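Researcher: I'm preparing a figure for a lab meeting and need a structural model of a single chain. I don't have an experimental structure, so a prediction will have to do for now. The sequence is pasted below. Please return the structure as tokens so I can convert it later.
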Amino acid sequence: MLTRQVRFSQLEGATLPSPRELLNAAKAEIREIDPHEVAERLHHYYLLDVREPDEFEQGAVPGAIHVPRGNLEFSVEGRLPDKSVPVAVYCAGGVRSAFAAKTLQELGYTDVVSVIGGFNKWKDEGLVWTTPHTMTSDQRIRYHRHLLLPEVGEAGQMKLLDAKVLLLGAGGLGSPAALYLAAAGVGTIGIIDMDVVDASNLQRQILHNLDRVGMRKVDSARMTLEAINPDLKVKTYDTRLGADNVLDIIDGYDVIVDGRQLPDALLGQRRGPAQAHSRRARVHLSLRRTDHRLQPLRRAVLSLHDPRAAARGVGAELCRSGCTGCAAGHRRLHPGGRDDQAAARAG
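Model: Understood. Here is the structure written out token by token.
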């Protein structure tokens, strides 16, 4: 096997700079700032922590954005898209932050300073710092694809891990919602359903399977979700949602995902529950029939304005006419597409 030899003639006889010389050269091109000046103007600066994850986990300046020095060039623009904002960079002792500040300037950031002495001096001077709530190594692997998204990142994933979502129903609408919420890393999922798993529903109620026919839906749902994400906390309510318990059940949840066939019949009966419900973010899932131009099932829609529809049996109507599981809605991600236009024409 022949190996091509390449000679770097331009380096012959040249003296390569030492690490200290490289650091001095970098500092000559940037501005440095005392930690106290940054602390006095924390509201002014975007703090950028360029230390390694294990260093960051041991303590950091409150509100700092963490981007390790090794990922800086490829990650910082997603975390700090506005290159005109004032940025104060710090590391452990002021060395990596100097190189990072120089890199930021080369990337087009116009107002960058390096914190003298880094985080070590920050702590020694008695300035405020905290131990950040961070993800485990297993969580970083599991949610790696989320962390790569600028719209999510580590801060967004941490919010998901702290979030609490209540699902009203573990059937054809609640099943896919529960699966995706669990996989995405929502920390707590509550499920309310008083029914049992039925074989005739398994073509759309994908939380359950044939081995669980006759099992309580909430117990089956818990088994499926905990198998998807071991970090997930599942709270179950094997009861009917009513005016007498709705306030106690929804208390503490950030978002309520309503997958019932009659979403507003209960909450419209009494002023108290309706008001309490409106203070939380609420998502209503609807059934759609493919032979009616993407329109929601008519009787389910009418029930929103007629609580008496419950007595007429909308659920029985679904059993007679049949229904499918949830269809993927990826085309609706493109506003103005044919599906949106069809839905607009359908009213």
